[in-house]
Write a structure and sequence with these properties.
3 helices, single chain, 91 residues, 21% strand
Amino acid sequence: MCVVYDVRFGFIVLEYYMDGYFENNSNYVNAEDLYHHLLDKWKFCWIVDKAKVNGTEEFEDYERSLTKKQRAERDKALAHFEKAFQQIQTK
């Protein structure tokens, strides 16, 4: 994934598959929209990774497979990201 900024188009997110083929191209007018896109991407990748660690089958309810410790870890990371984003917005 690559994020670039263009004065005319705003933030542009270029996403590629692992083998290098182009996957997606998204434009975001402001930093908040970009932040939420990247946060959603992180949430998805994080929960899929934890589901694999927990031995959850593909397409099962990944959320239910999380342990209390993993939920606390996620909540702590999300709070950290939100705090950092709020600091960036105020500068």
